[in-house]
Write a structure and sequence with these properties.
62% of the residues lie in helices and 5% in strands. The chain is mostly helical. The longest helix has 34 residues. The radius of gyration is 22 Å and the shape is globular.
């Protein structure tokens, strides 16, 4: 009998709780099945003609669809105003994170849900980015940037900020405290607008502002997209082959995105607490494990990057290739984006099921004036579905399905990249074999993390 940890809602949320919840489920067979599906999909793309996977990612034109850029700029400015209002409520409103609009809006609506919409459905960031409205006026006002971002740095500043944000999320004693979150966001917004002024708005958003960098990458997976005057659709990942700007270090950013998501799951397991010498059933609080968490976060990412480089290098040698590490990383690292999105979805699904209810209540009465905009007056947040075996099973299977699907898509994308850079299917199989092994093992890791007992 295996176990699966499901997030238990308390007054504090989003990695700030300190209680354990263990639901017994026979997850072993499901883990084996998920790994088997990924392995079979791997063998299938190896033996099918190379044009078959390409047809899978063919786009379909749906309807005539045109978006005026000024419409998105207005939407972006409204989003900016909401962020400013959220910061004000964080500083001056209730300290209860399950009632304060800032914590609900940032951690639940934005950090949990928005990447899912961006990666699975459409380019949501084009509408909700709080920075985009300022690009055109700043470009007009500034004939040229005051300073130039070093080309050698590429996108590495965004990598550093991603790691700092992850450290805040995982190691800070109270990341969901409204006033604390408001202060962090104020500093970040000030830094972002200052950077846009000094280094140029487009350059800063493309290479430093990590939310924008992340959303641009996730957009490559979405089902729906605008192409000219048409709304198009396709299988997850159909936009992957689109030409986008490639900056130095983007492959590292993508791998860190996967590494931080994986460590986020590991960081909650009994296994992790055993490694750092903490009793998970008598958790002393987040402030007692700040240093181990930060060290673990950095170590997990270094191990992942190192292992990935080893795998693609071995594959290159097996295929008798002569490509350098940078070229290999730029080709294969983006293929793990579906896995990173799947980990994000699976990890936050239980939290979203509960805390999403608090978001609905906040939208029902956003100003706390007794409004009933959504007709939810008298509605009470429920966690009862965590108390029934069948609903817990459904949640876990949904998480397992998402992770398995993400790995299958990544396997297909990695094979297509192998064919593209090595030219023929035989060499592509040799080159992709180590990466494929990496993805199969990562499937097991992801499903094991879901099944492991947790404190959350």
């Amino acid at each position: 009998m295996s176990v699966v940890g499901i997030t238990t809602p308390t007054k504090a949320f989003s990695h700030a709780t300190g209680q354990s919840f263990i639901a017994l489920l026979p997850t072993g067979p499901y883990i084996a099945l998920g790994v088997l599906i990924v392995a079979l999909s791997l063998m299938l793309v190896w033996f099918l003609p190379s044009q078959v996977p390409y047809k899978l990612f063919k786009k379909i034109n749906l309807i005539e669809f045109r978006i005026n850029s000024s419409t998105q700029e207005i939407s972006s400015f409204i989003s900016f105003l909401f962020v400013v209002w959220g910061i004000q409520t964080g500083l001056n409103g209730t300290r209860d994170p399950l009632e304060n609009p800032l914590t609900l809006g940032f951690w639940v609506a934005f950090w949990m849900a928005a990447p899912m919409i961006q990666g699975y459905l459409f380019n949501l960031w084009g509408w909700i980015s709080p920075w985009q409205w300022a690009v055109k006026p700043l470009t007009i006002l500034l004939s040229r940037p005051w300073l130039k971002l070093p080309d050698q740095a590429g996108i590495l500043p965004a990598v550093a900020i991603l790691l700092m944000f992850s450290a805040f999320t995982l190691a800070d004693p109270a990341p969901d405290d409204p006033a604390r979150l408001a202060s962090v966001l104020t500093v970040y917004m000030t830094m972002t607008f200052s950077g846009m002024v000094v280094f140029g708005p487009e350059r800063w958003l493309e290479r430093v502002e990590f939310f924008s960098v992340m959303m641009v990458q996730l957009k490559r997976l979405a089902v729906f997209a605008q192409r000219g005057d048409k709304l198009c659709a396709g299988w997850l990942g159909w936009q992957f082959k689109d030409n986008i700007k490639i900056f130095r270090g983007i492959s590292i950013f993508i791998l860190v995105l996967l590494g931080t998501g994986s460590f986020d799951g590991l960081n909650e397991t009994f296994f992790w607490f055993d490694q750092i010498g903490v009793n998970p059933l008598d958790f002393p609080g987040r402030s007692a494990v700040v240093i181990p968490v930060v060290i673990g976060l950095l170590s997990a990412n270094l191990i992942l990057i190192g292992l990935f480089i080893i795998m693609i290098t071995i594959g290159n040698r097996l295929a008798s290739g002569h490509l350098n590490t940078t070229t290999l990383l730029n080709a294969f690292a983006p293929t793990v984006l579906p896995i990173a999105l799947a980990y994000h979805t699976a990890h936050y699904l239980p939290s979203l099921l509960v805390e999403g209810q608090y978001v609905l209540l906040a939208l029902n009465d956003p100003l706390g004036n007794g409004f009933n905009l959504l007709g939810l007056d008298g509605f009470y947040v429920t966690t009862g579905f965590f108390n029934h075996r069948e609903t817990v099973r459904l949640i876990w299977l949904s998480q397992a399905f998402v992770i398995t699907l993400g790995h299958v898509i990544s396997v297909i994308l990695a094979h297509l990249e192998s064919v593209r850079i090595y030219g023929d299917s035989v060499r592509a199989v040799y080159a992709g074999l180590p990466v494929a092994i990496f993805m199969v093992l990562y499937t097991w890791l992801g499903l094991w993390l879901l099944a492991a007992p947790k404190i959350s």
